[in-house]
Amino acid sequence: MDDEGRSCCTPPREGYGIALPTVAAPKQGGGRENPIRVRGGRCFVGTDDPVIREDGEGPRRAVTLRDYALEAQTVTNARFSAFVEATGYVTEAERYGWSTVFYGLLPEDATPNSHDARAPWWVGIDGACWRAPEGPGSDIETRMDHPVTQVSWVDAAAFAAWAGGRLPTEAEWEHAAGSADGRRFTWGNEEPDDETIFCNIWQGRFPRENTCRDGYMGTAPAVSFNATEAGFHNLVGNVWEWTSDAYRVRSMKRAAKARNARAQLRSEKVLKGGSFLCHISYCYRYRIAARMALTPDSATSNVGFRVAYDA
């Protein structure tokens, strides 16, 4: 994290707080897609062995959850397309007129409108949105089974309500990922590296060289790699996943209090799971306890979501 408490993984939209044209909330009309029932009870969130302390990964704490259901995969481009077609919904990136794109996915002649000086691999591209993730000239025709990206928390929550569900809490997400036994990753404790592939993360030297040993420069299909014992796909890697929770660091230290004040001011939300851009040398956030904060109107190349339901 930098001195403003931001995650280096995905930059916030600098225009947070700008009034956008309002859109009507879509009425419920979508259906569930492969939800997996998860038994609640006494569960755990966080870790007593944090790697990135400033993110608020610890301490490990007990929570009580009711039974719930969580979809086995993230929402895909195909499914989000059906949502837009049925409701006429217009995403926040479309209303802003631009969004943030990882530069490694862009053609050489792309013309950014801005870049993040602290993370220059992120650039603003006019016209980038869920249907054109890298801006004009890009499309999702060959990626309909991939996670939808360039969607904000507001967009994700709107889709979830249309589907008759909601975004999961951070505790629900971690419990579904296998936090009960204290494992570091969804598959256990074996560390992935540039040769040992468990999920879609970066292989090589970030951000200049990606060997794509896992088969993907960007996103992978929502249903890919080995599922967890419970049947979930890509809970870590591929795309960050929005949760319903406001971001907060649990600490009494002065720096944490200041960070929480900023998070509250900016209405930041918690994301879980890491993405295809994560690497242990740069962003070791594909662990179950890892987390990231982002303003709810932000949308990028590596952020998506999955839907939860009350049991």
Straight-line distance between termini: 37 Å
Spatial strand order of the main sheet = 12-11-10-13
Q: In the CATH hierarchy, what is the class? A: Alpha Beta
Element order, helices and strands?
EEEEHHEEEHHEEEHEEEE
Question: Treating each run of at least 4 consecutive H or I residues as one helix, how many helices?
Answer: 5
From the alpha carbons, calculate the radius of gyration and give it in angstroms: 18 Å
Provide the low-confidence segments as ranges: 1-7
Number of domains: 1
Envelope shape: globular
| Structure summary, number of beta strands | 14
Fourth-level CATH superfamily: paralog of FGE (formylglycine-generating enzyme)
Structural class: alpha+beta
Round the mean pLDDT to the nearest integer and report it.
91
Keyphrases for this structure?
single chain, 5 helices, alpha+beta, three-stranded antiparallel beta sheet, paralog of FGE (formylglycine-generating enzyme), 311 residues, 18% strand, globular
